[in-house]
Structures are given as C-alpha cells and as structure tokens.
Amino acid sequence: MNRFLLVSRVRSSTAALASPRLEHGLLVVTTAALAGGGVAHFLDATGLADLFWGLGTVSAFVPAVGWVLVALRRGHAGVDLIAVLALGGTLAVGEYLAGTLIALMLATGRTLEEAAQRRASHDLHSLLAHAPRSARRRTDDDVVRVPLGEVAPGDALVVGPGEVVPVDGRVESAEAVLDESVLTGEPLQATRHRGEVARSGAVNAGGAFDLRATATEQDSTYAGIVRLARQAGAESAPVVRLADRYAAWFLPLALATAALTWLVSGSAVRAVAVLVVATPCPLLLAAPVAVVSGLSRASRRGVVVQDGGALENLGRAHTLLLDKTGTLTVGRPCVLDVVAAPGHVPTEVLRTAASLDQFSPHVLAQAIVDTARDRRLELSAPTEVTEEPGRGARGVVDGHRVFIGRDDDAQARPAWAKAVDNRALLDGATVTWLAVDEHLTGAVLLRDPLRHDAPHAMRRLRSAGIERLVMLTGDRAATAQEVAAVLGLDGAQAELGPADKVAAVRDERGHAVTVMVGDGLNDAPALAAADIGVAMGARGSTASSEAADIVLTTDRVDRLADAVVIAQRSRRIAVQSALGGMLLSLAAMAAAALGLIQPAVGALLQEGIDVAVILNALRALRADRAEQVGLAPATEALIHRFASEHEELQDVLQAVRAAADRLCDVPEPSALESVEEAYRLLTERLLPHEYAEEHELYPALAPVLGGPESTATMSRAHTEIGRLSRRIATHLQLVHATGGLGPEQLDDLRSCLYGLYTVLRLHFAQEEESYFSLAP
Predict the structure, then answer these.
(1) pTM for this structure?
(2) What is the similarity comment for this entry (predicted)?
(3) What is the DSSP string of 612-631?
(4) Helices (H) and strands (E) in the chain, counts
C-alpha cells in the first residue's frame, strides 16, 4: 500500500512538473524577480537587488532539478542538466543577475515551446474537438437523441442545421448541403442528392435532412481520422532522435569546456559563463516544433499524418509506388462516350438509358444517371421495372419497352454495333447496350478515367525529388501500360494480387525509402509493408486507412505532392534549427571561455539564440511559395465555371464523333443530318465556350502562370478548332449549293470531323490537367 502511494505521489509530482501552469507561473516569478532587482539596483539597494535576483534563481533551480530527474528517470540526460549546473554555478559564485537571466530564459523557452506546440497542433486538436458525441434517431412517432455508440446500420437519422454528420450514411432527403472542409481541407460546400453518400464529420450547411446510417460509429470515416489524429506526433521522428544525439555529445562537450576553462584560467566565473551560454533549453525542442508544425500544415491540406516519424520519412523518400484504381484513376466508372444507331441521337440514347437506370443499384447504372443529370437531361419516370442481376434492367419509358444492359448476341449485331465493340476493346471500356422495343438503338461506353490532377501530381512529385514512380495494379497489363505511358511513370506491374504487391514493395524498399499509395482493402498489406503507407481515405476502405501512416482525406492525389513538399520543408527547417542553434551556442561558449562574455551578458545572448531558433522552427507552419499556386477568388471561380462547362460539352464531342462515323463510303441522308446537328452544337455551344476561355480564363491565368506565353499553346489549339469548324461550315455550304454531298467532299469532311474530335479531346485534357487542377 505504501509503495502504491509512493508511486502515485511520484506520478502526481511528474504531472505537476509538466504542467503549463508551473511554466507560466515560473515565467511570472522570474520576470518579477528580474524587474524588482533592477529597480533595487537602480536605487543603489545592492543587497535587496541580490535578494530579488537570488530568489529568482532559486525559483527556477528547484523545478529545473525536477525536470532533469524526470528526464533521467526516462533514460534521457538532456540539456536541462546544463541549465541546472549553470543555475547552481551562479548561486555558488554570487552571480545572481546571471542566474535570474538564466531562470527567465528557461521559463521563457519552456513557455514558448508549450505555446508553439499548442499552436502547431491546433488543427489536429480541432479534429478531436469536432468529433460528434450523439445522433438524433427517428423512431415510429418521434425523434430521440441517442449516444453515438448506439447507432447501427439501417437506422433512420435526422441531421439538423449546423450539426455534424454522426456516421457514414446515405441521404434520404431530396438533397443535403454539406461543409466537408474538416475532412478535405476544401472551403467549398458540397451538395449530396438523394441516395448519395454523406461522410461522418461533415457539417450540415443547409436545412435538416434525413440520413440512413450505413456504418457504426467506429466504422465511419471520421472515427478513422480521429484515431489517426490521436496518434499524430506521438512518436519521435528520426530527425528528433538526431537532436537527441546532438545532446548526447553536446552535454559532455559543454561540461568539458567549462571544466577546462576553470582549470586553465582559474576563474569559476568564466566556467559559469560557459555553462550559461551552453544552456539551450528550448533549442533542441525546435526540431519537434518544426515537425509538429509540419503535421499541422499537412492537416490543413487534407493530409492526416500518423506521427512525426512518417512525416520525416516522407521527406527522405525517393521511390513512390501507386495503386491504379481509385488512386491514379477516379475509382468508379464514368461515361466515356454515347453511341447512337442510325436514325437516333446520342442525347436521347443517354436520356432513355438513364431514365430506366434511375432505380438500379448497379455501379454502371449510377454512372449513367449521374452523367445524364450533369448534362441536365430531363429524365422520365420508368414503370414495370425489373432487373436481372448480371444481365440488365427492363421497363417501360415514355410508352416504349426498354432494355439496358449486356447483349451477348454479337453475331446478330449491325455494323455500327460491331464498331462499338472494337472501340470498347481499343479503349479498355465496358459497353452497356440500349434496346427500345426490341431494337438495338444505342450503346454507352464506360471506363474508369484518370484523375484530372494525376499528371500534374506526378510532375510535382518529380520536381520534389521523387526519383522513381511505379504503378502496382491488379488490372490487365494493356490498361496498366496505357496509364503508365500517359503519366510518364517509370514502370507498371499488372495483374498483381495482395501478396504480389507486398513482394514488390519489399523489393523496392531494398533500394530506397519507399512510399506506397493505395485506397482499397487489398492495398492494406502493401501499405503496411512500405516505409510510408499512404491511403486515399476520402473513399478508400477502413482497412487501408488503418494500415497507412498517412491518409489523404480529400479525394485528390495531388495532395500527396503537397505532403511531400511539406515533409521536406519541415525536415529541412528542423535540422536547420537544431544545427544552427548548436553552432551559435558553440561560438558563444568559445567567447565565454576566453573571458569575452560575462555570465549575465551570456544569459541574454543565449535567450536571444533560443527564441530565434524556435521562431525559425515555427516557419514550418507557414505555406511555402512552392507548395501551391496562389489563385484569386475570381480566377478560381472562372476555373470552376469552365471545368463545369467541359462536362456539359461532352455531348458535343460525341456528336462530332458520331457524325464522322456515319460518313461511310455511301453516306445515308441521315448522316448529313448528323453533320448539320454537330455543326449546330459547335456554333451554339462549343465555339462560344472556346471564345470565352480565350478572352476571360486565359488572361486571368497568365499572371499566375508567369505571363501570356504560358497559355500560348492552348490559344493555338483554339485557332485550330476554329479553322476546322470553318472548314466544316464550308462543306455544308457546298452541300446546300449543289444539293448533296459530293464524293470529292467525303474524305475531307470526314477528316475534318475526326480531326476536330481529336483536337477537342486533347485540348480538353490539357486544360483539365494544366489549368483546372490548380483550383481545389
């Protein structure tokens, strides 16, 4: 029992010594002692001045001894031991003013360090404070508030205005307006429609909405982020251990220098002066300040780092391995193209397919419906809907019997449908066929596309010092090679299972510090095997997030490049702060040993060194100029506007491609109608868009990108788009003048349409990669 009480008292004493109140109180006492002694000295009351300064020295000496004992108990003999010796030395030789200055320096340094840590980790603590504690569950006749742990999948919840979404779920109201900045770092609000996912941690920025829970508290997105945040900064990074190694030789060096000075000069005052200037109490704490500041900076960019060691390792990485699906690609199917049979138009094919697919849970159906809504098509309400898993759906749309899904009868397909099959094979796409009243009328091609920000992110990673970029994927080799070629990767390994990915990671680790990036459940073993595992946590699995050292909470791969730049800068500042402060202290020690610095002056000098070094470490909190391009709000709004227009103009590109496809050797009359329709869309929608880009967007981007020459290539593409459009117009004029499409026009008109389609696809991709990826 006595032993238990003794342990409890020791722990209580340790906690008291680490209390910010003690440090703040010590700062007040030492400041008052220094000021009181100064006033007494000014009034020629020398004895009273020494009394004040002596009390100030003793007030710091007692807790300093406690801090040293606590450190020794943990196996660390830090530089606080020098402070204790210096304080004791000033008391022994009667240099009370120097002792008070050391005491003030010690109190100021520890208070500054505590404030720096608090400021640096503010964002991480905000994550913890933001965590919801309860939820409002809808019952048969009421809405009751229940503890969050009681919420189960399937529960009907109500999220009121300003409330935090308690668990992951699906929106059951018409829409929900959410502020997801805590999760993603983005200040923009997101609108989630009925059936879409709402992640826990987002704040309801609109009216109350109904939510159907799909996960428990522990399995929800925000709980995983909180678990990571609780661990942030818990482990020492290698750079911090480096600072500990500095202390290992700096401490005996300081003691040896003081002893040698006393032995050679015979002056105890000089020896005390050496100890005074060798008292960098907050100095070696500057490294953790820089690392924690880097963690804070990363969290603001939507990057949650598990610990300081992961951040420091990321700053030393030279090899980056990436999963494909969900990491380099969007991770879900998107509509690549819509093809219509002769006599039909792509827009109507998409509208009909989306109308029938509205109530289908299939991932391809959702992609078709989302695309139709993005293009603002008016969908009809289907009736008599039935669905055969793995085959497709049937129903009635606008009075017609409609089927959407697989068509296994390849032999009976018309020529246009066989061309769709060939294109799907070449593009690595999946085909969903549309039949109306038992007649094949169109097809929708879907593919998992590259993220718009992926090429930009790869370039930034290269410029940040990543020497090797390799893709690891379970996908087919042909698809993997195409993605690797587009992104300029150093290699791609395809058709890999989880064990194969782990083997590849271990092989790369034998050559350099290696980062693995993934988002799926099958990536978790590879993430755990890498030096640094990075999970795309915005939509990734819980398992991959738990196995990772770093989680990207926003659905952007370019935030990984931000994290690398932040890690490198934090590590550089940490080493710079530690080494810089050490060198300044060594120079001051040499001057003190030669008698050039008295103890009191040395205390002031060391105070300045310590404060300067910690302030330098806090630079890691600020954004580096190289981290991101600064965009004016108006420019960012323009980027979002034109990016949205790109989505809306996809049907124009499809119309141009469809018109070219129909210009066979003996074109039907409907083929010319397709050309006329395509040209109408060009003149009414696409060309005004290109004109607005040239005269609104590009001038706004030029100052950000370094001048008008930065957009010159894109302007040249606008010129080519205009030239091909005028050439098509001339062909149509000839058709009207001669009463038909002459054989001599056929090849050139078809070339113009295919050429225009190719230029537009390339031009859109270049703008999305180079310009649109600049805006979050």
Answers:
(1) 0.63
(2) Belongs to the cation transport ATPase (P-type) (TC 3.A.3) family. Type IB subfamily.
(3) HHHHHHGGGGSPPTTT----
(4) 29, 22
